[in-house]
Structures are given as structure tokens and as C-alpha cells.
Amino acid sequence: MKKRFSLSAIKITGGINLLLDTIKKSETGPNGSAPKILLLAPPYLNKTTSFHEEFGDSYNISLKLPIYYAQIAIDNNCEFLDTSKIIVASEIDGVHPDVNQQVKLGKIVLQIVKKIMK
């Protein structure tokens, strides 16, 4: 979401369909089938990121990403998790989750993956 790339939320999410197609054709699921997929939307950036010059209006773009990710998950028959409802970006850089947030997310993802893999 760096300002220098000048990408909208739609363009940021555009490559996801290509990645999902590649994964679905990989035959890496049970008995050579398509694997089950859990698509995660990233957490929102903080408005006051310490990298404001580098990320510009990325906060507003980050608010739109879960909507696009959710639709992509529906269109591709994937499981979906909006991490912005669970974790936040750190106060240190305003972009990445801190260790506590990563642990929190990891525990939730583990629960979801266990359900998916049943």
C-alpha cells in the first residue's frame, strides 16, 4: 500500500484471483485435489503511521480491503477472515501487528484451520 505504487484497493486485490487460481490448480489437497483455502484480509493501518510519507493515504485504502477480499473469497469458494476485526497494527509503525497481536491472530487462525481440515 505504499504511496509510490499508487494502487487502489481494487488493484491491490487484483492479483489475489491469480494466486487463488494457481493454488486451486496445484493438486496439493487431499488425494491430489485442490486444497482448502483460508483468505485473510490484513488489519487496517493506523491513521498516524510513523511511515506516513511512505504510505500516504493507505489508511483509507486499508479500510476498503476487507470488502474486496470477502467478495473474492465468495467468488472463489474460500474461507475468509477479516483480521481487522481481530487485531490492530502496532503503535510502533502503524503498519504491522506487534507480537501480541500476531499471537492472538495465530490462535484464531489455528481454530479456523482445524475446522476447515475436518
How would you describe this structure to a colleague?
Residues about 1-5 have low confidence and may be disordered. The longest helix has 18 residues, at about 60-75. Helix content is about 45%, strand content about 5%. It has helices spanning about 10-25, 50-55, 60-75, 100-115, and strands at about 40, 80. It has four helices and two strands. It has a single domain, classed as Rossmann fold, CATH 3.40.50.1110. It has a two-stranded parallel sheet with strand order 1-2. It is mainly alpha-helical and about 120 residues long. The radius of gyration is 16 Å and the shape is globular.
Give the CATH architecture: 3-Layer(aba) Sandwich
Structural class: mainly alpha
Give the overall silhouette: globular
Low-pLDDT parts are 1-5
Biggest pleated-sheet summary: 2 strands, parallel
What is Rg?
16 Å
User: Could you name the CATH topology?
Assistant: Rossmann fold
Instruction: Report, as a whole number of angstroms, the end-to-end distance.
Output: 35 Å
CATH superfamily: SGNH hydrolase
Instruction: Please estimate the helix content.
Output: 40-55%
Strand content: 5-15%
Give the number of domains: 1
Features:
118 residues; mainly alpha; Rossmann fold; 4 helices; 2 strands; 47% helix; 7% strand; globular; disordered N terminus
Give a short overview.
The chain is mainly alpha-helical. 47% of the residues lie in helices and 7% in strands.
